[in-house]
Amino acid sequence: MMGQALAKRDIHRGIILYDEQKFSRALEIWLSVLSKLRKPQDRFSVHGYVCMALLETGYYKEALEHALRQVDIAEWQNKDILKSEAFYNTARAFQTLGEMSKCLTFCERSLNYETDIPALPGYVHLCMGCAFLALGLISKAYMSLQFALDTSEEHEDKVLELMTRSSLANVFTAVRDYETAREHHWKAIKVARVFEAVDSSFKFMRRVLANAAVVMLKVGSYSDALDIAEEAIKDALTFSDRPVQSKCLFIFAEVHRERYDLKTAYPRYEAAYELAHEIGDQKLQMEIIMGMARAAEAEHDLLQAYTLAEKSYNMSMQMSCKLEAVRCLEHQSDLAIKLDRPEVSENSDYLRGQLLQELELYCGICDEPLGDRPGRLEVLDCCHFVHQKCARYLLRASQTQTVHRCPCPACRTKMPITSTTTF
C-alpha cells in the first residue's frame, strides 16, 4: 500500500511539472512509476500523461506506443469511458505522423463511446478537422471544426476555442482566403493573450503564433512573419517544443527565399527538414521540399527545382494530402513550361484538374477552382465554399422584395438567408 501511495504522489508531481512545461522531468517520473502501478486504471492514466508529454515535445512514434497501450487496457477492462479517451489519443498520434486515414478511423471509434470528459467530442472533432484539412477535404474540415467551436462555446472551453480558431484559419489559408484566415488567427491570439496574462507558461500561444506567421508570409508581410515566428520559436526553445521549432525554422527559410537571400534560406530549410524528419512530421517534410524546389527555381536551377517538386508531389500523394498535391502540380506545370516540356505541363494540368474534381474544389456557382488565387470565400450552411463575389447570385427577391432561400448549386441544400447577410 505504501508503494502505491508513493507512486500516486509521484504521478501528481509529474502533473505539476507537466503544467510547468518541464516535460523531460515529468516524463522521467511517469515512466519510472509505470512498473510500480498495479491498478489498470492507474496505468491507463499514466500512459495518457506520457502520451500527451511526448506529443508536446515531438516524439510522435513513442506517443503512439503509449496511446496503443491505453487502447489495450481499455479493451481489456471493457470500459467505454476509457475507450473514448484511448482512441482519441491514438488518433492524435496518427495525425502527427501524417497517417490521416488511421487518425479518422480512431476519431470515429472514440465518438462511438460515452465519455466523462464533457468537451472531449469537441477535441475529437478538432482532430478530425485537422485530418480532413490535410487530406484536402475542405468542407468536411470546416464542418468538423465548426462542431468543435460550438462545443467550446457550450462548455466555455477556451483552450478548445483558440485551437479551433487557429485550425479554422489554416482551412482558409489552404484555399487562399487570407483575410478570413487572419480574422480567425487574431481571435485565437486574443483568447491566448488572456491565458498568458494569468499563466506565463501557457503553451498554446506559440502554436497559434506559428500558424499566424504562415498567413503573414502568404500575404507578403515578411517582417511581421519573422517577428511572430521569432516570438514563437523563442518560447519553443525554452520548453523543448520541437514541432513549433521545426515549423518556425521553415517559416524563416521561406521568408529569406522570398527576399532572395538564398544563402540564408538553405541552412534553415536543412535544419527544419532534419528536425521534421527526426520527429516524424511527414507533411512538414513535404512542405519543406516544396520550398526548396522554389529556392532552386530562384537560382535558375530548373532541373533541380523540378526534381524536388516531383518528390514533394509523390510524398503528398503517398499521404493522400491531395490539396498539397494540387499545389505541387501547379509548380510542376510552371517549371515544365520553363524547361520547354509542354507535354509534361499538360499532364500536370490534367492531374491537377482531376484532383480538384475529386476534392470538389470548385465554386458551385461559377465553376471556377477555389483557391486558384487569393480572394474572399463564403461558406454556406451546408459547408460548401463559394467565391464571395458569386454568393450574391444565390439571393433571389420576389415581387414583394422578400428574400427567398436558394439552393446550394453543389448539393441543392436550401441556404437560409437572413436580412443581416452581406456580400
TrEMBL record:
- What Gene Ontology terms describe where this protein resides (cellular component)? cytoplasm; neuromuscular junction; plasma membrane
Query: Which keywords describe this protein according to UniProt?
Result: Metal-binding, Repeat, TPR repeat, Zinc, Zinc-finger
UniProt KW Zinc-finger keyword = yes
* GO BP: positive regulation of neuromuscular synaptic transmission; synaptic transmission, cholinergic
Enumerate the GO terms in the molecular function aspect.
Answer: acetylcholine receptor binding; protein-membrane adaptor activity; zinc ion binding
Superkingdom of the source species: Eukaryota
Q: Where is the RING-type domain?
A: 363-412
- Pfam families given in the database record: Rapsyn_N
What PROSITE patterns has UniProt attached to this entry? ZF_RING_2
Which InterPro entries does the UniProt entry name for this protein? Postsynaptic, RAPsyn, Rapsyn_myristoylation/link_N, TPR-like_helical_dom_sf, TPR_rpt, Znf_RING, Znf_RING/FYVE/PHD
Database matches in PANTHER family: 43 KDA RECEPTOR-ASSOCIATED PROTEIN OF THE SYNAPSE
Q: Which family does it belong to?
A: Belongs to the RAPsyn family.
Q: What is this protein called?
A: RING-type domain-containing protein
